[in-house]
Each structure stands twice: as C-alpha cells, then as structure tokens.
C-alpha cells in the first residue's frame, strides 16, 4: 500500500494518500485495498493491484487503480489510472512483456480503450473488447502484440469523443465556432448548422473509419486528431473550454 502512495492506515480500509509524483498532493480518509495479487508477466513474481475510491482526490465516482511490480529496489508502480467505477482486465500479448490493460467506465461495454506496454511505459494502445482488438493507435501498432481488424464494424475509432476544432486552434474555435467546430460521439456528429445520427462505425483499414449515416470518413492521426476526406485537420478540444451556449445547442448538453 505504501508503494502506491497510501500511508497512515485507518479503520475500515481507509488511508491517507500522498501522490508519489507530487508530495504536496495529499488526500485524507481515502478507501483503498489490494484488489488482487497475480503474476502478470510470467516471471514467477506476483504483482499487486491496488484500487482506491476518494471523491476528494479523483472526482465523483472515480476509482484510482495502481499496478505494482517488484524490482531490485522494492515495489514500484508500473501504471496508475483512473476511471468512473473503473472496470479493467489484463490481456497478454505475444511478444509484449506486460499485458494490455483494458479500461472501461462503469457499465461501458464493447470496444473500450486499452493501455499497451511499449518496452518502457504504458501508452494508449487503441480499443479492445474483452481482449479482442478493435482498433490500434499508431503507437499501439508499433509496440506489437497483434493487429486490429482491418475492416468491419467497430464501436468507435481510437479517438476522443467530444468537440473538435476544424483547421484552427481550440481557442479560435471557441471565439467563433461558426464552421470551425464540431461535436462527435458514437451517436451523432453535430455543428452549428445541424447534425446527423450515426448508424454505426466501420473500419476501412489504414487508420480510416466511416461513420455510417453521417457522410463522414476520417483518417486517425492520434488520439486527439484526425483528418476528413478533404484533408481538414480536426483537433480535440476539452469540454471545459466550450461555451455553454454551444454545448446546449448542439453539444454534450443538447440531448439530441
């Protein structure tokens, strides 16, 4: 528990948490426990998975998970991540030292994000469904461990859902969203002049995806950017930067 940043044990599995990377970041009264102990990389030495729940540390309904492995200097964190009501799974890959870690929020199912070991650290690998790879980021593909489906239906491309600035910076799109801002998730694509319902997403191969029903084909460049068929670069913008008026009209608050 100490290796994951938890000190001062208290009754009912509560602890004080100190961020191993920021000693100033301290939370009191955090519930945490060792959720499982298992050998994740086949070296005969078991790893420990610590799971914690503290609204004051990570936000409402957010769980923090830390995977600890033994080194010559003692236990060290291999990866730490958080998600809403975090559900996770480990999936071994041929040629990769550590397993992929599939991470879902709450009751999220289907193709969800996973982390992949690249030889030095865990990186965004793409999406998978119960270990079956749906999509791969370029970094995930370079790390090895198996290929994504080259064609066929997928849950969502390996990009962030939400707002995208088109050909401009997020600051410019926020200042005047007319024609340079869009909203995209698994249900719809929308902009200032209306929107369309998405009737499914199809992997076309070569990082290309078609949103059926929305007349949209994209080529994924990274988790936060893609281009459309016309070469227009789309850059993800955090929801917190968006004016509430845009969010209510056609974004995440419109419920359309």
Tell me what the structure shows.
It is built from four helices and 21 strands. It is mainly beta. Among the domains are: 1-85; 162-250, no CATH class. The strands form three sheets. It has a ten-stranded antiparallel sheet. Strands 1-2-3-4-5-6 form a six-stranded antiparallel sheet. The chain is globular and about 55 Å long. It starts with 5 loop residues before the first strand and ends in a 6-residue tail after the last helix. The mean pLDDT is 86.
Number of helices: 4
Work out the helicity level.
under 10%
Low-confidence sequence ranges: none
Shape: globular
Span between termini: 45 Å
| Rg for CA atoms | 20 Å
Order of helices and strands: EEEEHEEEEEEEHEEHEEEEEEEEH
Total DSSP E strands = 21
Fold blueprint:
Blueprint: E1 6-10, E2 14-18, E3 26-38, E4 47-53, H1 55-58, E5 62-71, E6 74-84, E7 87-91, E8 100-104, E9 112-117, E10 122-129, E11 132-136, H2 138-142, E12 152-154, E13 162-166, H3 170-175, E14 181-184, E15 188-191, E16 194-197, E17 201-205, E18 208-211, E19 216-222, E20 225-228, E21 233-237, H4 244-250
Antiparallel strand pairs: 1-2, 2-3, 3-4, 4-5, 5-6, 7-8, 8-9, 9-10, 10-11, 12-17, 13-14, 13-21, 14-15, 15-16, 17-18, 18-19, 19-20, 20-21
Please name the defining characteristics of this protein.
256 residues; mainly beta; 21 strands; globular
Provide a quick synopsis of the model.
This protein has four helices and 21 strands. Helix content is 9%, strand content 49%.
């Amino acid at each position: 528990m100490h290796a994951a940043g938890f000190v001062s044990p208290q009754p009912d599995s509560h602890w004080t948490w100190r961020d191993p990377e920021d000693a100033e970041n301290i939370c009191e009264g955090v519930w945490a426990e060792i959720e499982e102990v298992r050998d994740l990389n086949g070296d005969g030495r078991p790893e420990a998975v610590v799971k914690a729940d503290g609204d004051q540390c990570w936000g409402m309904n957010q769980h923090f998970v830390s995977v600890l492995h033994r080194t010559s200097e003692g236990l060290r964190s291999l990866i730490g991540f958080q998600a809403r009501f975090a559900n996770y799974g480990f999936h071994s890959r041929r040629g990769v030292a550590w397993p992929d870690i599939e991470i879902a929020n709450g009751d999220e199912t289907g193709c969800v994000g996973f982390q992949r070991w690249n030889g030095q650290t865990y990186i965004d690998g793409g999406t998978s469904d119960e270990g079956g790879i749906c999509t791969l980021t370029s970094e995930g593909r370079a790390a090895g461990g198996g290929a994504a489906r080259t064609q066929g239906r997928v849950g969502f491309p390996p990009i962030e859902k939400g707002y995208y600035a088109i050909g401009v910076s997020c600051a410019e799109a926020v200042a005047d969203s007319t024609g340079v801002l869009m909203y995209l998730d698994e249900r719809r694509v929308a902009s200032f002049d209306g929107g369309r319902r998405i009737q499914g997403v199809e992997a076309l191969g070569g990082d290309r995806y078609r949103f059926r029903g929305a007349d949209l084909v994209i080529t994924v460049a990274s988790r936060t950017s893609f281009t459309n068929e016309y070469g227009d670069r789309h850059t993800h913008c955090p929801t917190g930067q968006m004016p509430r008026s845009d969010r209510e009209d056609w974004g995440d608050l419109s419920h359309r």
